[in-house]
Design brief:
Layout lengths: L2 H7 L1 H28 L4 H4 L13 H9 L18 H29 L7 H20 L7 H7 L4 H10 L3 H11 L2 H20 L1
Helix pairs in contact: 1-2, 2-5, 2-6, 5-6, 5-7, 6-10
Length: 207
Amino acid sequence: MGLLSLLMQSPVTFLMLAIPLLYSIIFHEIAHGLVASWFGDNTARNSGRLTLNPVAHIDPIGTLMLFFVGFGWAKPVPVNYANLKPTRPGVICVALAGCTMNIFIAMLALLLIQLQIFSASSAFAIILPIVAKINIILAAFNLIPIPPLDGSRVLVEFLPRQMQSSLARIEPYGFFIIIISLYTGILYPVIDVIQNAIYSFIALFLG
């Protein structure tokens, strides 16, 4: 059942779904900030971005995209990568933290489905598969190596310096590149490949 059809058919269930989906993107950003603090950068903490208060995180366009397209974003947490020690492992771990959080949320949702805690007629039977699916989409989308997505932060750490500079020059146009690539369908096969890899990873734990 799509999110829009769910809104029309069961507004109460949609509102129940809104909270875990909203916090999926919030936890994504908090994970970045927490891992950055573990590696020595407290910029996110000092900016008040490690709070669970959604007001500190919500990006209106990113939230609308989440509910109407299936993936979205919160306001990126500020990270001073120069403060991370050691630098390369710090950058990679910070970059992967948000996606890892989304995969964890998806695993938790799928585990609850597998344990059959909720009856098939309950609202949770509708909500949990959607939460799992969208968190896997969020993780897959953010792992695409196009700036400013998290995958590009990982990629750049393995590139020669000249290629790092080339990738950095793309970043101001990254959002438009992503939108055009989504509109033309170029990115969807890439997202599908990453999603399948995530599902395979989860299957190792849940069977």
